[in-house]
Amino acid sequence: MKKLIAFALFLALSLSLLSGCSGDPANTSASNPGSNDDDGIGTEAQNAFVVLPSQLISIEDAARLLGEEMTAEEDKYDLVESGLTGKAHSVYHAADESNFLFIFQIFVYQDSLLAETLVKSMGGAKGMGSRNRESGLESETAEEIEGIGDWAYIDGLKKLMAEINIGYGDYFLTLITTGTPKDSDFETYGDDHAAWRKEVLIEACKLAVEHLKEILK
Questions:
Q1: SS3 assignment for the chain
Q2: Is the dihedral of CA 121, 126, 127, 132 positive or negative?
Q3: Of 24, 30, 131, 201, which is the most buried if we count CB atoms within 10 A?
Q4: 2-216 belongs to CATH 3.10.350
Q5: What is the pLDDT of residues 55-103, one digit of tens each?
């Protein structure tokens, strides 16, 4: 039953993210993540320089940030019938299935995963990020975070799923977390889960941008 509940929650979280996003570092190319061997990824995308989410936040990073042992899905490219959607994503789950609320997701939007026509018409991942920022900041609960990347804002802190969006150069990142403070954090946060999620996401955001800078050197 726990597995069924966890799976249902994950589907709901993923669908919510996709609908909202519409409005160890290494200098390497991710030629073919194993989960997409037969999903129709074209040769051009396979041979392109792709920044993988796990290069920005590793499973060890996620475990430290959430204070929970984690397991990982493989990095994936998102596909639609007409081609690539412009992002690679990865999901980390709590290793203990009873803690199914602990999920950490990383999305990396990049031009190498966008059709050339979309890069021209939308301004690439950078343009997608700018539009996301404009629409996202219309939310009364959104908050700009200064000093990280070119821009960053956070939202959903008082909900089950909180996210932070970051623009850096030609890349647009979205990091999402669920979960609650561990007992060891209770003295600091008490029942203020929003403050805990904000600190986790800001630390994760800084780490992701730091790793992205290293990759792009």
A1: CHHHHHHHHHHHHHHHHHHHHHCCCCCCCCCCCHHHCCCCCCHHHHHCCCCCHHHHCCHHHHHHHHCCCEEECCCEEEEECCEEEEEEEEEEEECCHHHCCCEEEEEEECHHHCCHHHHHHHCHHHHHHHHHHHHHCCCCCCEECCCCCCEEEEECCCCCCEEEEEEECCEEEEEEECCCCCHHHHHHHCCCHHHHHHHHHHHHHHHHHHHHHHHHC
A2: positive
A3: 201
A4: no
A5: 999 999 998 988 888 998 878 876 554 555 678 899 998 888 777 667 8
Is pTM, for the whole model, over 0.70? Answer: yes
Q: What is the per-residue burial (b if ≥16 Cβ within 10 Å, else e) of 193-207?
A: beebbbebbbebbbb
Report the distance separating Cα 150 and Cα 184, nearest Å.
34
Q: Is 72 in contact with 35 (CB distance < 8 Å)?
A: no
Inter-residue long-range contacts of 118-125, CB under 8 Å, 24+ positions, other chains counted: 118/86, 124/170, 125/86, 125/87, 125/170, 125/171, 125/172
Encoded tokens for 40: 């129709």
- Amino acid sitting at position 41: I
Cα separation of 29 and 17, whole Å?
26
Provide CB contacts within 8 A for 171, sequence distance 6+. 51, 108, 109, 110, 125, 126, 129, 212
